[in-house]
Write a structure and sequence with these properties.
The chain is of the alpha+beta class and 289 residues long. It contains 6 helices and 11 strands.
Length: 289
């Protein structure tokens, strides 16, 4: 008879099978518990992220609302300030009007106050308006004022020697009534008669003998369209025959002529003068349009 004891083997004896099943159940429960714990931790983490995201959205919304309220308050304060300033200015203006129309002021009014309060301001306004209307900057386009002289002068076939003496030329200079720089002068026919071929023989653009500069004349209309431009005209020379650059309708046209003066040695611009003239196309101008 054998002395070995019967040892229970899993799956072979009842006791071994029970022990094996208990061990498996314990392992399974432990794995499920760990899985549930991980799931709970992950859910908590997701909920935490959602709460943080929601908090960030709420914070941004509050910031937007706060910024909007701040801008609204600033605009409101600005409007109130402007209204208050306007009210103060209006009150000061009314106060001044009442003072200047009061018996106290009128009874103390003297010639000095009349001059400083009434005559002087009106004179300044009139002087300023006249200066602006006569200004070269207003009446002569920038591209014409900025025209450069490259040394080219009119040939002898175009520009001839003036037949007028200094006194006669001065009469023509005064008649054109030009405005602008006082460093030079010029004369130009105040009414230029143009034929059907848009050419003329009585341009009468002259550079007086008293000048020491080369002149360039530019004729332009109210739209600043250049109708004619000469080359350099030397002192003592005169241009009578010329042709317009383009066609014009028949009738009397109000145009302007701008004349730039240049140093004949350095070609540097000296100044600009302009005058109002008329161009009669296909008709004879008799002083009536």
């Amino acid at each position: 008879m054998s002395n070995k004891k019967n040892v229970p083997v899993a799956g072979k004896t009842v006791a071994g099978k029970n022990n094996y099943n208990k061990k498996k159940d314990a392992q399974r429960k432990k794995a499920e518990a760990e899985k549930n714990a991980k799931r709970l931790i992950e859910e908590k983490r997701k909920k935490q992220k959602q709460r943080e995201k929601r908090s960030e959205e709420i914070r941004r919304q509050r910031q937007k609302i706060s910024a909007k309220e701040t801008r609204t308050a600033e605009r409101k304060a600005k409007k109130e300030k402007a209204k208050l300033l306007h009210k103060r200015r209006k009150a000061r203006f009314v106060k001044k009007i009442r003072y200047y129309t009061s018996k106290k002021f009128l009874s103390s009014l003297n010639y000095f106050r009349i001059f400083t309060c009434i005559i002087l301001p009106i004179s300044l306004i009139i002087t300023a308006s006249i200066c602006i209307s006569r200004s070269v900057l207003v009446n002569v386009p920038a591209d014409i004022r900025a025209a450069e002289f490259n040394g080219r002068v009119e040939s002898e076939t175009v520009a001839g020697d003036s037949i007028f003496n200094v006194q006669q030329q001065q009469v023509f200079v005064d008649a054109i009534k030009s405005k602008g720089s006082r460093k030079f002068s010029f004369y130009f026919n105040s009414v230029v008669n143009v034929g059907d071929d848009f050419s003329t023989d009585d341009l009468c653009f002259g550079n007086p003998k008293t000048n020491d500069f080369v002149l360039i004349a530019t004729v332009y209309d109210k739209n600043n369209t250049v109708l004619y431009r000469s080359l350099g005209l030397e002192p003592g020379k005169e241009i009578n025959r010329a042709k317009l650059f383009g066609e014009m309708s028949y009738g009397i046209h109000d145009v302007k002529v701008a004349v730039n003066a240049y140093d004949k040695n350095t070609n540097k611009k000296i100044g600009t003068r302009y005058a109002k003239i008329k161009i009669a196309v296909g008709v004879e101008y008799n002083g009536e349009e």
